[in-house]
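user: can you give me the structure for this one chain? tokens are fine.
assistant: on it. calling the predictor now.
[tool input]
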Amino acid sequence: MLDDEQWRWLAETFISEAQELLQRAEMSLSDLEQDLQDVEAINSLFRAVHTLKGSAGILGVDFVVGFTHHYENLLVGVRDGDIPLDSALLHLCYRCLDRINHLIEAATGGLQDDPDPEATAILVRQLNEVQRSGADLPVAQDGQHQERGTFERVSPASDQRDQAWHISLRFDRELFRSGFDPASFLRYLGRLGQLTEVIYIADELPDDLADFDPEQCYFGLEINLLGDTTKADIEQVFEFLDDLATIRILPPESQLEDYIQLIRALPEDDHRLGEILVKAGLLTEKELQQGLNLQSAEQGRKLGEVVVDAQMVAPEAVQVALEKQSSVRERLGRAAYLKIASDKMDELINQVGELVIAAEGMRLAAQQSVQARISERAEELCRHVESIRESALRLRMVEIGETFNRFHRLIRETGDGLGKQVKLDIQGADTELDKTMVDRIYEPLVHLVRNAIDHGLESPERRLEVGKPEQGTVTLNAFHESGQIVIEVSDDGGGIDPDRILQKAIERDLVAPGADIDEQSVLQLIFHPGFSTAQTVTNISGRGVGMDSVRKDIDGLRGTIEIDNRPGRGCCFRIRLPLTLAIIEGFLVSVGEQYYVIPLELVTECIELPAHLAQKAEGYLELRGQALPYLALRHYFSIKGGAAERQSLVVVRQGNLSAGVLVDRLHGEIQTVIKPLGQLFQHLKGVGGATILGSGEVALILDIGSLLRQVCDQTDAGSDRLIAAMP
């Protein structure tokens, strides 16, 4: 019996796997939207749903198993070609995934029964109706309809026997109760070639008909398949049977010598017998695992003996593989993957952060020592800690493509709701960033994508009028730039109308009538709380909360958002984010006795403040012919005491905004472990966190994105004049 801890672990594993399987299923449906005949996408969808049902069954979540079983039956018909797939059926498949997701959420929340059985029943009725109305009779190879449950019987010639694959099937008694029809597997098998012989084996039928149970399966099949296929392709037909059948697949006798020659020609890169047989195509991965399980159960037996006795591989082929094995040099280095809970990974990053702080303290102590050997050891220690830090952070890096793929469905449903034809173009899917960042950026991207479809893309009629394709395009792109990750959400619509935004802002008293304000400043007004240009309120837009929420979320990630408006050609929202939220390279400065850290990738240069500006707390100066706004941290944070005789200006740049930060002293680069601020300090503007220095002192980490905007607002030249003057 499993104890509570084991059951908790199983439940957590089920939740994690269910989320991955649902996402995989949704990606398969997205692929089918592009090509309704994509066989691999259909198989992938089936595998995900089937595995999900099995996982739910292990935990005894019957209401999840029950509904998923009906969905699985539909997919069997689609896979076998009995039910044609169209856009309406695809929409039903999406709704079924939604229902499964809701049922899983209910199960993980502790519910023992379906929280909305009526909604489930409606979908079940629709699934059953599709199966009844859409299941046409299968077509035999001669073009004539076959009656269900019967198969083409061909008397094979002797040469056909030699050239045919032989498949032996013995079904479990519970096959029918599990919802499987052997006829569907045979019809699908017929796609791989010609079924030259199908022999019905009824050895398991009870002698007394009174013992016969019509819900149990008593028969097996012996099949000869003539066709140019592989053992893996044949096995894939039956992969969903799991433990409900014993399957043996033997290659054509005429091809056995070809397989033997292939074994001999394999490069000498593996010393394992099973791997050699798999690479030659004589053994599938599933059969290899079955053979290893049998070998484990029968201690002392060799794998070659096990697979020969189980009729998985011919003895001649095993003998040649053994000869090959003996001639192969041992080589290590097979890739392996380890699944780790996110909380354990967070704990590791925290410990690495503490190690970084301790190493920095050791370095400072070594600098005060007169012994050169201690300083050398401290520098060596810091180098190793930095290497550990980089390796630990790489463990949390994931590709953003998985997040981008989640938008296929959102775009389809939003476009349908607005009567617009929209396609999604994904670029830079292999760009990596911190897992925490990926999770938190999803909601802002949802708002931006919906905004692009609703406000950006024109109606199909309007697009045709202006010479554009009827179908609009929303593009998601990601790439690395200057130590940051850049995410772009763009469309090929009509762009943003600055005049309309300005007029709306004047109506709401956000801008004075007749104010001299440049286009970029006008565009930034859409991020103002409650601002909206929508004429009517819908379930997509019109309440003025979307873009304000986007700015708030991105600020929380220490990022910035820019607008690249192209009237008549579309609009691009460009988000710039740090690669990680845990540990960063920083630039340490101080004002009086207080230390501050600026993210190093945002620092462009450091200059000495001109003497004539020493007494000004804020303003702007000319830097290489450009107007640069600046702000004194002493004044901004109300730090008491007089300024240093020689002040420095740290020039920072994020996106298209640049400014100077005036400080007393520069202390150089530092590895910084970011610690979140407590609730008492959450309201502070211009501060994104804190860190502990090697000396034990606390330094505040500046939120440069927020600070840049405030610098522009507080300078005496006015934000519009300064932004216009910036590079």
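assistant: here you go. The two ends are 69 Å apart (CA to CA). The mean pLDDT is 77.
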